Amino acid sequence: MSTVLPECRCCERSVLVAGSRCDVDIDDCVSSPCYNGGTCQDGVNGFSCVCPEGYSDPQCVSRMEHCQSNPCAHGTCFNHDS
């Protein structure tokens, strides 16, 4: 009597993408996807960036323009680093 072993075929870019049992999680932060000093946090099938003050969007690329909303009404607004 022979034993039949299961064969796992992992879907590319799935949560469990590697290993003989498809049980190895891929670290999505290896490529350093966060810019301007942002910190990458690996997640399940993705990542998120914690941006430094003054930067926004998913990968910390865009500089926040605080004056864009005209917060000073009749005064003059200046963007500056805190």
Automatic annotation (TrEMBL):
<keyword id="KW-1015">Disulfide bond</keyword>
<dbReference type="GO" id="GO:0005509">
    <property type="term" value="F:calcium ion binding"/>
</dbReference>
<keyword id="KW-0677">Repeat</keyword>
<dbReference type="InterPro" id="IPR013032">
    <property type="entry name" value="EGF-like_CS"/>
</dbReference>
<protein>
    <recommendedName>
        <fullName>EGF-like domain-containing protein</fullName>
    </recommendedName>
</protein>
<feature type="domain" description="EGF-like">
    <location>
        <begin position="25"/>
        <end position="61"/>
    </location>
</feature>
<keyword id="KW-0732">Signal</keyword>
<dbReference type="InterPro" id="IPR051022">
    <property type="entry name" value="Notch_Cell-Fate_Det"/>
</dbReference>
<feature type="disulfide bond">
    <location>
        <begin position="51"/>
        <end position="60"/>
    </location>
</feature>
<keyword id="KW-0325">Glycoprotein</keyword>
<keyword id="KW-0245">EGF-like domain</keyword>
<dbReference type="InterPro" id="IPR001881">
    <property type="entry name" value="EGF-like_Ca-bd_dom"/>
</dbReference>
<dbReference type="InterPro" id="IPR000152">
    <property type="entry name" value="EGF-type_Asp/Asn_hydroxyl_site"/>
</dbReference>
<dbReference type="InterPro" id="IPR018097">
    <property type="entry name" value="EGF_Ca-bd_CS"/>
</dbReference>
<dbReference type="Pfam" id="PF12661">
    <property type="entry name" value="hEGF"/>
</dbReference>
<dbReference type="InterPro" id="IPR000742">
    <property type="entry name" value="EGF"/>
</dbReference>
